[in-house]
Structures are given as C-alpha cells and as structure tokens.
Amino acid sequence: MLWNLATKWIGAIKTSIYIYVSTIITVILSVLILHEKITEISIIGTVLILIGLVISQKN
C-alpha cells in the first residue's frame, strides 16, 4: 500500500531510488548505532547499488 502511495506522489523512478538508497543507509546506521563490522559483502553490495543508481540516472 505504501509503495503505491509513494509511486503516486513522487513517481516510480524516484520511489525505486529511495528503496535502493535505504539499503545503503541501513548498512551505515548498523555500523554507527549497532557497532557492527562492515563486511566485504556489504561493501561490494553498496558499490553495486551506487553503480546501478548512477547508470540508471544517466538514461
């Protein structure tokens, strides 16, 4: 329901961007608040998400 509402308000592309960025914010906050270690997998995932966002914004 929230996805449909957000899509109606700001559009599908911006809604998708916020969903991908929320994953990166989760990794950062887990390190800062929960003192979790950053793993290689989380770094690779963050880089891949950022690369995907850059590529999607170029088109």
Radius of gyration: 14 Å
Beta-strand level of the residues, as a percent range? under 5%
Question: How many helices in DSSP terms?
Answer: 3
Low-confidence stretches: none
Q: Which percent bin holds the helix content?
A: over 70%
User: Quick one: biggest sheet?
Assistant: none
| Distance between the first and last residues' Cα | 28 Å
SSE series: HHH
Structural class: mainly alpha
- Shape call: flat
Overall structural domain count: 1
Mean pLDDT: 89
Quickly describe the structure.
The protein is about 85% helix and about 0% strand. The radius of gyration is 14 Å and the shape is flat.
Walk me through what this model shows.
This protein has 59 residues and is an all-alpha fold. The protein has one domain. The protein is built from 3 helices and no strands. α1 crosses α2 and α2 packs antiparallel against α3. The mean pLDDT is 89. It comes from Anaerostipes amylophilus. InterPro entries: EamA_dom, EmrE-like. This is EamA family transporter.
Q: What is the fold's blueprint, element by element?
A:
Blueprint: H1 2-10, H2 12-34, H3 40-58
Helix pairs in contact: 1-2, 2-3
Index terms:
3 helices; flat; mainly alpha; 59 residues
